Inverse folding.
């Protein structure tokens, strides 16, 4: 299940993410089931998060970010260097109201 966002919604979320600090960091072990469980919990609580990926190789970072997006059902809003911004609306209490497409 992939989230499809309009360019205006993507721009809105990038603006909201600008001042955020990275809440999660992927270490040398890569994407583990425990990390995915934590990612799911943090996305449910915050909806919009930054994740720092500590892989040196650009292709390895791309693969890890792709795994995160696929496993969490989130949308990749932006990726700059080692930091990816992910968005997934909360199932229970939505905090972020997106502009209309």
């Amino acid at each position: 299940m992939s989230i499809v966002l309009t360019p205006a919604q993507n721009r809105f979320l990038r603006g909201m993410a600008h001042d955020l600090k990275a809440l999660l960091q992927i270490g040398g072990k890569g994407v583990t089931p425990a990390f995915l469980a934590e990612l799911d919990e943090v996305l449910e609580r915050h909806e919009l998060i930054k994740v720092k990926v500590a892989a040196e190789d650009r292709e390895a970072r791309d693969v890890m970010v792709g795994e995160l997006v696929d496993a969490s059902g989130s949308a990749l809003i932006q990726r700059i260097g080692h930091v990816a911004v992910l968005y997934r609306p909360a199932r229970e209490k939505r905090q972020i109201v997106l502009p209309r497409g």
Remarks:
- The first helix runs from residue 7 to 17.
- Residues 34 and 40 are 10 Å apart (CA to CA).
